[in-house]
Amino acid sequence: MDTDLERTRAQLPRFATFNPAEVQPAVDALLARNRAALAALGALDGAPGWDNFVEPLDDLNDALSRCWSPVRHLHGVLDSEALREAYNAALPAISAYGTELLQNDGLYRGFAALEAAPDFAVLSPARRQVVLQSLRDFRLGGIALDPARRVRFSEVQQELAKLGARFEENVLDATRAFEYHTTDAAELAGLPDPILGLTAQNAQQAGREGWLLTLDLPCYQAVLMYADDRTLRHTLYDAYVTRASELSAEGRFDNSEVISRILALRQESARLLDFADYAALSLATKMAGSPAEVLGFLRDLARRSRPVALRELGELEAFAARELGMAQLEAWDVPYASEKLRQHSYAISQETLRPYFPVARVLSGLFEIIRRLFGVRIAKLDGIDVWHPDVACYEVRGEADAELRGVFYLDIFARAHKRGGAWMDDCLGRRRVGGEVRHPAAYLTCNFTPPVEGRPSLLTHDEVITLFHEFGHGLHHLLTRIDEPGVAGINGVAWDAVELPSQFMENWCWEREALDLLSAHHETGEPLSDDLLSRLRAAKNFQAGLKSLRQIEFALFDFRLHAEFTRGLDVQTLLDEVRNEVAVLIPPRHNRFQHSFSHIFAGGYAAGYYSYKWAEVLAADAFSRFEEAGVFDPQAGADFLHAILERGGSEDAAVLFRRFRGRDPSIEALIRRSGLTA
Question: Which domain holds residue 185?
C-alpha cells in the first residue's frame, strides 16, 4: 500500500457529499475553535518557538483552508443559488477572521520575538522568510493602527470581500443572461464545425430547434473570428462588451456602483495604513520597487510596441478594404479581418490546426514534456471524488524514485454555471506534519470546447497554450520542496513573479520536439507537418504589437486607476485617457470593458495586472537558456526545477532568478521573441 497516496486521498475534499446548507455551521464552528486556540497562542508562557507557536498557527490556518477551499472552488465551477447563498453568507465571517488574525497583538509579538531571537540567523531560509513575511503582513493588516482605525480597517476588508464576490457574480449572471437563437443556417456561415455542433447541442438541451449562441468564450470568440455575418458579430460584440454594465440587459447586474465602491474602499485601506494610494500598498508584496518603476516599465514597452502596432493596423485596414470590402473597420470586424489576414498571409488558422490537437493527445504530450523537463511522471487516479463527470484527478511522482509529489484535478471544458477563463487554485498546500510530508493538491481549470455528439474535443493552438500556462502554475504549486506552508509553492512568491512558471511553459507550444509529442491528426494520426509548423511559426508574432499594446493598456489602466483614484473620478474617462496614450485600436464609446475586468475587481491583480508583462520578461529570458542549450536540455530543466519550482516563496524572486540564469533578467529576449523590433 502506498501510504503517501492513501494519506493524501484521505485529505481530499468529499465533493459527493457536499451540502451548501452545511457551509455556514461548519465555518462558524471552525472559526470559534480557531479563535479559542489563537487566544492561547497569543498568551504563551515562555519564548515562542517553531514547535509551540508557528506550527500550531499553521494547523489553524490549514484547517480553515481545507474547510473553505472547496467552497470557494465550487462557487467558481458549479455555481447554484444554494451554493451562492451559502458562500456569500459565510464570506464576511471568513474575511473578518482574516483581518483579526493580522491584528492579533499576541501573534505579532510572537513573530517579532522570533526575529529578535539569537537563533534567528541559523533558521533555514524558508523559516526566516516565513517570519519576515508574517511581520510584513501584520503591518499590512493594520497591526499598528489604533483601536478605532483597526475596526474601520476590518469593516473595509469585509466589505471588499463581499463586493469582489458580487462583481464576479454579476459578470457570470450577465454572461448567462444572453442567448441568441437562430434556425437560419446561413446566418452562421463561416463558423467552424465544432462550434456549430456545440451551439446545436445548446439548442437541443434548451428544447429548441436550430442553434443557440452564448457569450461563453468558445462560442463568442469563434463568432467574432469566423462568422461571415457582420450583423451577428456586431450583436455578440455589443452584448459581450457591455456585460455587467448600465448598458446590458436593462441594467441588471450592473457593476458600476460596485467598481466605485471597491476603488474607494481600497484607497481608504491604503490611507489607513499610511500609503499614498492603493498602488503603493500593492507594491509592498511585489518585485517592482515603486510606482514610477512600474509606469516606466509599461511606457517603455508601449514605446517599443507602438511602431509595430501602427504598421500592423495599417496592413489590416488595407487588407480589409481591398479583400473584404470594409472601408471602415469596426471593433466587431477586427478579429474577423485579422483571422482572414492571417490565413491570407500564412495559409493557417486556429481551425486549420484544431484537428491536430485532440485533448487526449495534448495531455499525453504535455505529461511527457513535463517528464523530460523535470523528471516527474503524471498518471490518472481512479476512485477520486469529483464535482462533475468531466473532471479527472492525477498524481505526480518522481520518475527516478516514484516519490509522490502531489495530485491535481483537471476540469477543462466549458459548461453552464462555470466561471469563464482559466486558472489554478490550491486545494492542499505542502507541509510537514508529525515528521510526515502532506503532499500538495491543485485545481486546474479551463473553458475549452467540450466533446460533441461522440466526437473528441479538439483544441485550438491558443487553447493548448492556455493549458500549458495553467500547468506552469500547477507545477509551481505541486513540485515545491518547501515544508513551511506560508512560503511553499506559490505562497509567498512576489505577485509580479508568480506568472514566471506559467508563461515559461508556454514556450514549448512552438517547438518541433514538443509539438511532435502534442499533435496528431484525430482521424489519420498524422503529425503536424513541416509545412504546417513552418506556417505556425511564421504566424507566431502575427499582430504582436497590437497584442502587446492591448495588455499594456489593461495594465496601465489598472495601475493608474489605483494610483490616482479620488472620489468623483470618472473611471471611463481615465480608461479613455490611457487608450489615447498607448492604444492604436480605440473601441467604440459603448464598450464597458472595465465592468467585467474580474482580474482587478474580483481577483488578486488590483494594481498588479502589469505582472503579466513583468513576468513575461522573466519567462522569455529564462527560456533563452533552453534556446541556447536545447529545449529538453536535462541540466537546464533540473536547474529550473531546483531554483524556481521547488523553492516557492522561500527566497526573494530576484535571487532565485539569478540562481537559475546566472544574472539579472534582460528585456531583450522578450523583444526578440515577441517580434517587437520595428
Answer: 178-242
Given a contact cutoff of 8 angstroms between Cβ atoms, the answer to whether 622 and 661 are in contact is yes
Q: Report the C-alpha gap between 515 and 509 in whole angstroms.
A: 6
Q: Is residue 55 part of a domain?
A: yes
Q: How many CA atoms lie within 13 A of 164 on its CB side?
A: 23
User: Do 564 and 515 lie in a common domain?
Assistant: no
What whole-number distance in Å separates Cα of residue 246 and Cα of residue 221? Answer: 23
Q: Judge if 487 and 430 occupy the same domain.
A: yes
Q: What is the structure's pLDDT at 1?
A: 52
Q: Residue 306 and residue 676: Cα distance in Å, rounded?
A: 9
**How does pLDDT run across 552-587, given as a tens digit for each residue?**
999 999 999 999 998 778 999 999 999 999 999 999
**Beta-bridge mates of residue 380:** 394
Q: Rounded to 5 degrees, what are φ and ψ at 584? A: -115, -15
**How many other CB atoms sit within 10 Å of the CB of residue 230?**
14
Nearest to 83 by CA among 190, 200, 169, 152: 169
480, 646 Cβ separation under 8 angstroms = yes
Asked whether residue 72 is assigned to any structural domain, the reply reads: yes
Strands 436-438 and 431-433: antiparallel
CATH code at position 271: 1.10.1370.10
Torsion (CA) 196, 197, 202, 205 in degrees, nearest 10 = 150
Centroid of chain to Cα 197? 29
Name the residue among 321, 330, 313, 337 with its Cα closest to residue 238. 330
Catalytic residues: 470
- Please name which of 373, 2, 455 lies closest in space to residue 201, comparing C-alpha atoms: 455
Other Cβ atoms within 10 Å of 286 Cβ, number: 19
If asked whether residues 116 and 24 sit together in one domain, one would say yes
Radius of gyration for the alpha carbons in the chain, expressed in angstroms and rounded:
25
Domain count, the chain: 4
242 alpha carbon, distance to own chain's centre: 23
Dihedral, 583, 586, 592, 593 alpha carbons, nearest 10: -40
The answer as to whether 232 is a domain residue is yes
Residue 604 has pLDDT above 80, yes or no: yes
| Neighbour tally for 45: CB within 10 Å | 5
Which residues are registered as beta bridge partners of 397? 377, 404
Dihedral of CA atoms 616, 619, 625, 631 in degrees, nearest 10, equals -110
Tell the residue number behind the cell numbers 477563463, with chain if given.
421
Query: pLDDT tens, 286-326?
Result: 999 999 999 999 999 999 999 999 999 999 999 999 999 99
Q: Please say whether the beta carbons of 544 and 306 come within 8 A.
A: no
Q: Which three cell numbers stand for residue 185?
A: 443556417
In the block, residue with C-alpha cell 514538443? 514
Do the Cβ atoms of 344 and 338 come closer than 8 Å?
Answer: no
- The verdict on 363 and 331 lying in the same domain is no
Query: Minimal CA–CA distance to 547: which of 337, 338, 322, 241?
Result: 338
CB contact at 8 A, 15 and 389: no
For 52-109, how does the pLDDT look when each residue is reduced to its tens digit (9 = 90+)?
A: 999 999 999 999 999 999 999 999 999 999 999 999 999 999 999 999 999 999 999 9
In a domain, 153, yes or no: no
Tell me which amino acid residue 443 is.
Answer: Y
